[in-house]
Amino acid sequence: QAWRASLLWFDPHADEPHPRYEADGLLVTAAGADGVRRVVAVGAFDTLRAAYPDVPLTERRGRLIAPGFIDLHIHYPQTDVIGSPAEGLLPWLAQYTFPHESRFADPAHARAVARFFCDELLRQGVTTALTFATSHPGSVDALMAEAEARGLRCIAGKVLQDRHSPDGVRDRTEQSLRDTEALIIRWHGRARLGYAITPRFAPSCSDAQMRGAGELAARYPDVWIQSHVAENVDEVRWVRELYPHDRSYLAVYERFGLLRERAVYAHGIYLDADDQRALAQSGAAIAVSPTSNLFLGSGFFDYATARAGGVRLGLASDVGGGMSFSPFATMRAAYTVGRAAVRGDGRPKTGVSLSPFDLWWQHTAGAARALGLGGVVGSLAPGSEADFVVLDPAATPLLARRTAQAESLAEWLFALIMLADDRAVTEVVVAQGPGTQIFTGGASAVHAGPP
Ligand code: GUN
Ligand code: FE
Asked: What is the ipTM of this complex?
Protein backbone atom coordinates (compact mmCIF):
# COMPACT_ATOMS: atom_id res chain seq x y z
CA GLN A 1 0.00 0.00 0.00
CA ALA A 2 1.15 3.56 -0.67
CA TRP A 3 0.27 6.86 0.97
CA ARG A 4 0.72 10.35 -0.43
CA ALA A 5 1.06 13.13 2.16
CA SER A 6 3.62 15.36 3.79
CA LEU A 7 6.01 13.03 5.61
CA LEU A 8 8.13 13.60 8.72
CA TRP A 9 10.45 11.09 10.34
CA PHE A 10 13.92 10.79 11.87
CA ASP A 11 17.07 8.85 11.22
CA PRO A 12 16.37 5.69 13.25
CA HIS A 13 19.95 5.02 14.36
CA ALA A 14 21.20 8.46 15.42
CA ASP A 15 21.57 9.47 19.06
CA GLU A 16 20.14 12.88 18.32
CA PRO A 17 17.30 14.16 16.14
CA HIS A 18 18.09 14.12 12.41
CA PRO A 19 14.77 15.09 10.82
CA ARG A 20 13.73 13.98 7.34
CA TYR A 21 10.88 15.73 5.59
CA GLU A 22 9.03 15.45 2.29
CA ALA A 23 6.44 18.14 1.61
CA ASP A 24 4.83 15.97 -1.09
CA GLY A 25 5.91 12.51 -0.12
CA LEU A 26 5.16 8.90 -0.91
CA LEU A 27 5.24 6.15 1.70
CA VAL A 28 5.20 2.59 0.35
CA THR A 29 4.52 -0.35 2.68
CA ALA A 30 4.24 -4.11 2.18
CA ALA A 31 3.57 -7.11 4.39
CA GLY A 32 6.47 -9.46 5.07
CA ALA A 33 6.33 -13.25 5.32
CA ASP A 34 5.76 -12.82 9.08
CA GLY A 35 2.57 -10.82 8.45
CA VAL A 36 4.11 -7.55 9.66
CA ARG A 37 3.82 -4.60 7.28
CA ARG A 38 7.02 -2.61 6.84
CA VAL A 39 8.12 0.49 4.97
CA VAL A 40 9.70 -0.50 1.65
CA ALA A 41 10.29 2.99 0.29
CA VAL A 42 9.88 6.60 1.35
CA GLY A 43 10.66 9.79 -0.54
CA ALA A 44 9.40 12.50 -2.85
CA PHE A 45 6.21 11.54 -4.66
CA ASP A 46 7.49 12.73 -8.04
CA THR A 47 10.60 10.60 -8.03
CA LEU A 48 9.24 7.52 -6.23
CA ARG A 49 5.85 6.93 -7.83
CA ALA A 50 7.38 5.71 -11.11
CA ALA A 51 9.05 2.84 -9.24
CA TYR A 52 5.71 1.75 -7.70
CA PRO A 53 3.15 2.52 -10.40
CA ASP A 54 0.72 -0.27 -9.49
CA VAL A 55 0.66 0.03 -5.71
CA PRO A 56 -2.80 1.31 -4.62
CA LEU A 57 -2.48 4.93 -3.54
CA THR A 58 -4.22 6.60 -0.60
CA GLU A 59 -4.30 10.38 -1.11
CA ARG A 60 -3.74 12.44 2.03
CA ARG A 61 -2.27 15.64 0.62
CA GLY A 62 -2.56 18.50 3.12
CA ARG A 63 -2.03 16.11 6.00
CA LEU A 64 1.13 15.00 7.79
CA ILE A 65 2.09 11.35 8.09
CA ALA A 66 4.53 10.67 10.93
CA PRO A 67 5.61 7.55 12.82
CA GLY A 68 3.23 6.25 15.47
CA PHE A 69 4.19 7.68 18.85
CA ILE A 70 5.98 5.60 21.50
CA ASP A 71 4.93 5.98 25.13
CA LEU A 72 8.00 4.96 27.10
CA HIS A 73 6.27 4.63 30.47
CA ILE A 74 2.62 4.29 31.35
CA HIS A 75 0.43 2.34 33.80
CA TYR A 76 -2.57 0.78 32.11
CA PRO A 77 -4.32 0.05 35.46
CA GLN A 78 -4.10 3.75 36.33
CA THR A 79 -6.38 4.81 33.51
CA ASP A 80 -9.03 5.65 36.12
CA VAL A 81 -6.55 7.29 38.49
CA ILE A 82 -5.90 10.28 36.18
CA GLY A 83 -6.69 13.51 37.95
CA SER A 84 -6.64 12.24 41.55
CA PRO A 85 -5.15 15.07 43.63
CA ALA A 86 -2.86 14.34 46.59
CA GLU A 87 0.04 15.78 48.57
CA GLY A 88 2.70 14.36 46.29
CA LEU A 89 3.78 10.91 45.12
CA LEU A 90 3.74 8.77 48.28
CA PRO A 91 0.32 9.93 49.56
CA TRP A 92 -1.04 9.60 46.01
CA LEU A 93 0.14 5.97 45.84
CA ALA A 94 -1.46 5.15 49.21
CA GLN A 95 -4.73 7.04 48.72
CA TYR A 96 -5.60 6.25 45.11
CA THR A 97 -3.17 4.07 43.25
CA PHE A 98 -2.84 1.01 45.46
CA PRO A 99 -6.60 0.75 46.24
CA HIS A 100 -7.31 1.10 42.55
CA GLU A 101 -4.77 -1.46 41.44
CA SER A 102 -6.14 -3.97 43.98
CA ARG A 103 -9.26 -4.24 41.80
CA PHE A 104 -7.18 -5.94 39.08
CA ALA A 105 -7.36 -9.19 41.02
CA ASP A 106 -10.67 -9.47 39.14
CA PRO A 107 -9.93 -10.58 35.53
CA ALA A 108 -13.16 -9.07 34.25
CA HIS A 109 -12.17 -5.67 35.60
CA ALA A 110 -8.68 -6.02 34.13
CA ARG A 111 -10.12 -6.94 30.74
CA ALA A 112 -12.52 -3.98 30.70
CA VAL A 113 -9.80 -1.47 31.57
CA ALA A 114 -7.33 -3.08 29.14
CA ARG A 115 -9.87 -2.72 26.35
CA PHE A 116 -10.40 0.98 27.03
CA PHE A 117 -6.66 1.57 27.46
CA CYS A 118 -5.66 0.00 24.13
CA ASP A 119 -8.41 1.84 22.27
CA GLU A 120 -7.36 5.11 23.87
CA LEU A 121 -3.66 4.67 23.04
CA LEU A 122 -4.49 4.09 19.39
CA ARG A 123 -7.01 6.92 19.27
CA GLN A 124 -4.25 9.26 20.48
CA GLY A 125 -1.75 7.97 17.92
CA VAL A 126 0.36 5.82 20.26
CA THR A 127 1.33 2.53 18.58
CA THR A 128 4.05 1.31 20.96
CA ALA A 129 3.82 1.41 24.75
CA LEU A 130 5.97 0.20 27.63
CA THR A 131 3.44 -0.25 30.39
CA PHE A 132 3.12 -1.45 33.95
CA ALA A 133 0.31 -3.87 34.73
CA THR A 134 -0.46 -4.60 38.41
CA SER A 135 0.99 -7.23 40.75
CA HIS A 136 -1.74 -9.67 39.63
CA PRO A 137 -0.45 -11.95 36.83
CA GLY A 138 -3.92 -11.95 35.25
CA SER A 139 -3.61 -8.21 34.67
CA VAL A 140 -0.81 -8.96 32.18
CA ASP A 141 -2.84 -11.65 30.40
CA ALA A 142 -5.79 -9.27 30.04
CA LEU A 143 -3.67 -6.50 28.56
CA MET A 144 -1.62 -8.66 26.20
CA ALA A 145 -4.75 -10.23 24.73
CA GLU A 146 -6.31 -6.82 23.99
CA ALA A 147 -3.05 -5.41 22.59
CA GLU A 148 -2.56 -8.41 20.32
CA ALA A 149 -6.09 -8.11 18.96
CA ARG A 150 -5.35 -4.52 17.91
CA GLY A 151 -1.82 -5.05 16.56
CA LEU A 152 -0.37 -2.70 19.19
CA ARG A 153 3.29 -3.09 20.01
CA CYS A 154 2.93 -3.58 23.74
CA ILE A 155 5.66 -4.29 26.28
CA ALA A 156 4.31 -4.96 29.75
CA GLY A 157 4.99 -6.70 33.02
CA LYS A 158 3.53 -7.85 36.29
CA VAL A 159 4.51 -5.43 39.05
CA LEU A 160 6.85 -6.78 41.76
CA GLN A 161 6.07 -5.34 45.19
CA ASP A 162 6.53 -7.65 48.16
CA ARG A 163 6.95 -5.00 50.90
CA HIS A 164 5.75 -1.54 51.94
CA SER A 165 2.60 -2.30 49.98
CA PRO A 166 -0.93 -2.83 51.34
CA ASP A 167 -2.99 -6.03 51.20
CA GLY A 168 -4.51 -6.43 47.79
CA VAL A 169 -1.44 -5.41 45.83
CA ARG A 170 1.44 -6.89 47.87
CA ASP A 171 2.81 -10.08 46.31
CA ARG A 172 4.87 -12.95 47.74
CA THR A 173 8.55 -13.09 46.87
CA GLU A 174 8.99 -16.61 45.50
CA GLN A 175 5.59 -16.74 43.81
CA SER A 176 6.12 -13.30 42.19
CA LEU A 177 9.32 -14.51 40.55
CA ARG A 178 7.74 -17.76 39.36
CA ASP A 179 4.81 -15.76 37.96
CA THR A 180 7.20 -13.39 36.19
CA GLU A 181 9.05 -16.23 34.49
CA ALA A 182 5.81 -17.92 33.42
CA LEU A 183 4.59 -14.63 31.90
CA ILE A 184 7.89 -14.14 30.06
CA ILE A 185 7.50 -17.58 28.51
CA ARG A 186 3.84 -16.98 27.67
CA TRP A 187 4.08 -13.51 26.13
CA HIS A 188 7.59 -12.35 25.29
CA GLY A 189 8.14 -12.29 21.53
CA ARG A 190 4.63 -13.42 20.66
CA ALA A 191 3.23 -11.27 17.82
CA ARG A 192 4.24 -7.68 18.64
CA LEU A 193 4.30 -8.25 22.38
CA GLY A 194 7.22 -8.08 24.77
CA TYR A 195 7.71 -8.66 28.47
CA ALA A 196 9.27 -6.25 30.97
CA ILE A 197 10.50 -7.35 34.41
CA THR A 198 8.81 -4.75 36.60
CA PRO A 199 10.06 -4.05 40.12
CA ARG A 200 7.70 -1.21 41.11
CA PHE A 201 10.48 0.84 42.74
CA ALA A 202 13.25 0.06 45.21
CA PRO A 203 11.15 0.81 48.34
CA SER A 204 8.50 -1.79 47.41
CA CYS A 205 10.86 -4.71 46.75
CA SER A 206 12.77 -6.84 49.27
CA ASP A 207 16.40 -7.71 48.61
CA ALA A 208 15.33 -11.24 47.69
CA GLN A 209 12.80 -9.95 45.15
CA MET A 210 15.31 -7.51 43.66
CA ARG A 211 17.91 -10.27 43.45
CA GLY A 212 15.40 -12.56 41.74
CA ALA A 213 14.49 -9.82 39.28
CA GLY A 214 18.15 -9.32 38.46
CA GLU A 215 18.65 -13.06 37.91
CA LEU A 216 15.72 -13.17 35.52
CA ALA A 217 17.09 -10.10 33.72
CA ALA A 218 20.39 -11.95 33.21
CA ARG A 219 18.72 -15.17 32.10
CA TYR A 220 16.46 -13.36 29.58
CA PRO A 221 18.66 -10.62 28.10
CA ASP A 222 16.19 -9.51 25.43
CA VAL A 223 13.39 -9.05 27.96
CA TRP A 224 12.91 -5.45 29.09
CA ILE A 225 13.20 -4.03 32.62
CA GLN A 226 11.07 -1.12 33.83
CA SER A 227 10.92 0.72 37.14
CA HIS A 228 10.92 4.18 38.73
CA VAL A 229 13.92 6.15 39.96
CA ALA A 230 14.59 9.49 41.67
CA GLU A 231 11.16 10.95 41.07
CA ASN A 232 10.37 12.84 44.25
CA VAL A 233 12.38 14.27 47.15
CA ASP A 234 10.48 12.30 49.83
CA GLU A 235 10.88 9.10 47.84
CA VAL A 236 14.63 9.70 47.39
CA ARG A 237 15.00 10.32 51.14
CA TRP A 238 13.13 7.09 51.88
CA VAL A 239 15.41 5.09 49.57
CA ARG A 240 18.44 6.56 51.34
CA GLU A 241 17.03 5.30 54.66
CA LEU A 242 16.18 1.85 53.29
CA TYR A 243 19.49 1.40 51.48
CA PRO A 244 22.05 3.29 53.58
CA HIS A 245 24.99 1.42 52.05
CA ASP A 246 24.23 2.19 48.40
CA ARG A 247 25.79 5.25 46.84
CA SER A 248 22.53 6.45 45.30
CA TYR A 249 18.98 5.39 44.41
CA LEU A 250 20.11 4.30 40.96
CA ALA A 251 23.02 2.36 42.46
CA VAL A 252 20.52 0.05 44.19
CA TYR A 253 19.24 -1.12 40.82
CA GLU A 254 22.80 -1.38 39.51
CA ARG A 255 23.82 -3.61 42.45
CA PHE A 256 21.01 -6.06 41.66
CA GLY A 257 21.89 -6.29 37.95
CA LEU A 258 18.98 -4.19 36.77
CA LEU A 259 20.96 -1.61 34.81
CA ARG A 260 21.48 -2.75 31.24
CA GLU A 261 20.26 -2.23 27.67
CA ARG A 262 16.48 -2.47 27.52
CA ALA A 263 16.08 -1.16 31.08
CA VAL A 264 13.85 1.93 31.24
CA TYR A 265 13.59 3.99 34.41
CA ALA A 266 10.84 6.56 34.75
CA HIS A 267 11.55 10.13 35.92
CA GLY A 268 15.23 10.38 36.95
CA ILE A 269 14.88 13.96 38.15
CA TYR A 270 17.28 13.63 41.08
CA LEU A 271 20.36 12.01 39.59
CA ASP A 272 23.99 13.07 39.96
CA ALA A 273 26.89 12.91 37.53
CA ASP A 274 27.87 9.36 38.60
CA ASP A 275 24.29 8.20 38.02
CA GLN A 276 24.29 9.79 34.54
CA ARG A 277 27.53 8.00 33.75
CA ALA A 278 26.18 4.65 34.98
CA LEU A 279 23.08 5.08 32.83
CA ALA A 280 25.03 6.07 29.73
CA GLN A 281 27.56 3.24 30.08
CA SER A 282 24.96 0.57 30.72
CA GLY A 283 22.63 1.61 27.88
CA ALA A 284 19.71 1.94 30.28
CA ALA A 285 17.32 4.80 29.54
CA ILE A 286 15.22 7.42 31.30
CA ALA A 287 11.52 7.83 30.51
CA VAL A 288 10.94 11.55 30.97
CA SER A 289 7.39 11.95 32.28
CA PRO A 290 6.68 15.68 32.35
CA THR A 291 2.90 15.83 32.83
CA SER A 292 3.20 13.44 35.76
CA ASN A 293 6.04 15.44 37.28
CA LEU A 294 3.96 18.61 37.01
CA PHE A 295 0.75 17.01 38.31
CA LEU A 296 2.36 15.34 41.34
CA GLY A 297 4.69 18.29 41.95
CA SER A 298 7.72 16.01 41.65
CA GLY A 299 10.07 18.44 39.90
CA PHE A 300 11.56 19.43 36.56
CA PHE A 301 13.73 17.09 34.52
CA ASP A 302 17.24 18.43 33.85
CA TYR A 303 17.71 17.99 30.11
CA ALA A 304 21.01 19.87 29.90
CA THR A 305 22.79 17.61 32.39
CA ALA A 306 21.27 14.37 31.11
CA ARG A 307 22.22 15.24 27.54
CA ALA A 308 25.75 16.24 28.51
CA GLY A 309 26.08 12.88 30.27
CA GLY A 310 24.96 10.98 27.16
CA VAL A 311 21.88 9.46 28.80
CA ARG A 312 19.37 7.82 26.47
CA LEU A 313 15.92 9.24 27.01
CA GLY A 314 12.44 9.40 25.59
CA LEU A 315 9.02 10.75 26.45
CA ALA A 316 6.29 9.13 28.49
CA SER A 317 2.84 10.01 29.76
CA ASP A 318 3.10 8.10 33.07
CA VAL A 319 -0.70 7.93 33.17
CA GLY A 320 -2.24 7.99 35.85
CA GLY A 321 0.36 10.25 37.56
CA GLY A 322 0.37 11.86 34.11
CA MET A 323 -2.63 13.84 33.05
CA SER A 324 -3.07 12.84 29.42
CA PHE A 325 -2.64 10.00 26.93
CA SER A 326 -1.94 12.57 24.22
CA PRO A 327 1.61 12.73 22.87
CA PHE A 328 0.99 16.40 22.13
CA ALA A 329 0.23 17.10 25.80
CA THR A 330 3.41 15.25 26.78
CA MET A 331 5.57 17.15 24.25
CA ARG A 332 4.08 20.48 25.42
CA ALA A 333 4.84 19.64 29.04
CA ALA A 334 8.37 18.53 28.11
CA TYR A 335 9.01 21.92 26.53
CA THR A 336 7.72 23.68 29.66
CA VAL A 337 9.75 21.50 32.00
CA GLY A 338 12.85 22.03 29.87
CA ARG A 339 12.54 25.80 30.26
CA ALA A 340 12.45 25.64 34.07
CA ALA A 341 15.63 26.82 35.80
CA VAL A 342 15.09 24.77 38.97
CA ARG A 343 14.96 21.03 39.60
CA GLY A 344 12.56 20.72 42.52
CA ASP A 345 14.92 20.29 45.47
CA GLY A 346 16.23 23.84 45.44
CA ARG A 347 19.03 23.03 43.02
CA PRO A 348 19.31 25.18 39.91
CA LYS A 349 19.46 23.69 36.43
CA THR A 350 20.05 25.18 33.01
CA GLY A 351 16.80 25.99 31.24
CA VAL A 352 16.76 24.76 27.63
CA SER A 353 14.41 25.52 24.74
CA LEU A 354 13.80 22.14 23.11
CA SER A 355 13.22 22.34 19.37
CA PRO A 356 10.03 20.85 17.92
CA PHE A 357 12.19 18.28 16.13
CA ASP A 358 13.81 17.26 19.41
CA LEU A 359 10.44 16.91 21.17
CA TRP A 360 9.00 14.84 18.34
CA TRP A 361 12.13 12.68 18.17
CA GLN A 362 11.93 11.94 21.90
CA HIS A 363 8.45 10.54 21.35
CA THR A 364 9.35 8.47 18.21
CA ALA A 365 12.84 7.46 17.05
CA GLY A 366 14.53 8.58 20.29
CA ALA A 367 12.13 6.51 22.38
CA ALA A 368 12.72 3.56 20.04
CA ARG A 369 16.48 3.89 20.64
CA ALA A 370 15.83 3.94 24.37
CA LEU A 371 13.93 0.64 24.00
CA GLY A 372 16.64 -0.93 21.85
CA LEU A 373 14.16 -0.88 18.97
CA GLY A 374 15.87 1.70 16.76
CA GLY A 375 15.09 0.90 13.13
CA VAL A 376 12.21 -1.36 14.18
CA VAL A 377 9.64 1.22 15.26
CA GLY A 378 9.51 5.01 15.57
CA SER A 379 10.55 5.91 12.03
CA LEU A 380 9.42 5.82 8.42
CA ALA A 381 12.86 4.80 7.18
CA PRO A 382 12.78 1.69 4.94
CA GLY A 383 12.62 -1.48 7.05
CA SER A 384 10.65 0.19 9.85
CA GLU A 385 7.44 -1.47 10.92
CA ALA A 386 4.58 0.45 9.34
CA ASP A 387 3.06 2.13 12.39
CA PHE A 388 2.04 5.67 11.54
CA VAL A 389 -0.40 8.48 12.19
CA VAL A 390 -2.19 10.81 9.80
CA LEU A 391 -2.47 14.29 11.29
CA ASP A 392 -4.85 17.07 10.27
CA PRO A 393 -3.25 20.50 10.81
CA ALA A 394 -6.67 22.14 10.46
CA ALA A 395 -8.41 20.02 13.09
CA THR A 396 -9.37 23.05 15.18
CA PRO A 397 -9.76 26.73 14.22
CA LEU A 398 -6.74 27.93 16.20
CA LEU A 399 -4.54 25.07 15.00
CA ALA A 400 -5.52 25.82 11.40
CA ARG A 401 -4.78 29.51 11.89
CA ARG A 402 -1.38 29.07 13.54
CA THR A 403 -0.13 26.33 11.20
CA ALA A 404 -1.21 28.43 8.19
CA GLN A 405 0.91 31.33 9.51
CA ALA A 406 4.04 29.22 9.93
CA GLU A 407 6.97 30.27 7.75
CA SER A 408 9.10 27.19 8.33
CA LEU A 409 8.66 23.52 9.08
CA ALA A 410 9.95 24.14 12.61
CA GLU A 411 7.31 26.81 13.24
CA TRP A 412 4.62 24.61 11.77
CA LEU A 413 5.57 21.64 13.96
CA PHE A 414 5.83 23.82 17.02
CA ALA A 415 2.29 25.07 16.43
CA LEU A 416 1.12 21.47 16.19
CA ILE A 417 2.90 20.52 19.41
CA MET A 418 1.47 23.48 21.30
CA LEU A 419 -2.09 23.30 19.98
CA ALA A 420 -2.96 19.79 18.77
CA ASP A 421 -4.83 17.04 20.59
CA ASP A 422 -6.68 13.86 19.63
CA ARG A 423 -8.84 15.79 17.15
CA ALA A 424 -5.77 16.17 14.93
CA VAL A 425 -5.21 12.39 14.82
CA THR A 426 -7.51 11.38 11.98
CA GLU A 427 -6.09 7.93 11.17
CA VAL A 428 -3.76 5.48 12.83
CA VAL A 429 -2.16 2.58 11.00
CA VAL A 430 -0.53 -0.34 12.81
CA ALA A 431 1.86 -2.77 11.19
CA GLN A 432 0.04 -5.92 12.16
CA GLY A 433 -3.53 -7.04 12.59
CA PRO A 434 -6.43 -4.81 11.69
CA GLY A 435 -4.35 -2.11 9.97
CA THR A 436 -5.94 1.27 9.48
CA GLN A 437 -8.18 2.72 12.11
CA ILE A 438 -10.07 5.82 11.15
CA PHE A 439 -11.12 8.28 13.79
CA THR A 440 -13.45 11.16 13.23
CA GLY A 441 -12.61 12.79 16.58
CA GLY A 442 -14.74 13.24 19.67
CA ALA A 443 -15.58 10.62 22.25
CA SER A 444 -18.79 8.87 23.18
CA ALA A 445 -22.03 10.64 22.32
CA VAL A 446 -23.41 9.84 25.76
CA HIS A 447 -22.38 12.27 28.47
CA ALA A 448 -23.45 12.24 32.06
CA GLY A 449 -23.75 15.64 33.78
CA PRO A 450 -21.69 16.53 36.85
CA PRO A 451 -22.81 14.78 40.02
N1 GUN B 1 6.62 4.99 42.07
C2 GUN B 1 6.19 3.77 42.46
N3 GUN B 1 5.01 3.48 41.91
C4 GUN B 1 4.67 4.54 41.18
C5 GUN B 1 3.53 4.82 40.34
O6 GUN B 1 2.59 4.04 40.19
N7 GUN B 1 3.55 6.03 39.72
C8 GUN B 1 4.56 6.91 39.84
N9 GUN B 1 4.50 8.07 39.19
N10 GUN B 1 5.63 6.67 40.61
C11 GUN B 1 5.68 5.49 41.26
FE1 FE C 1 5.06 5.53 36.65
From this structure: 0.99
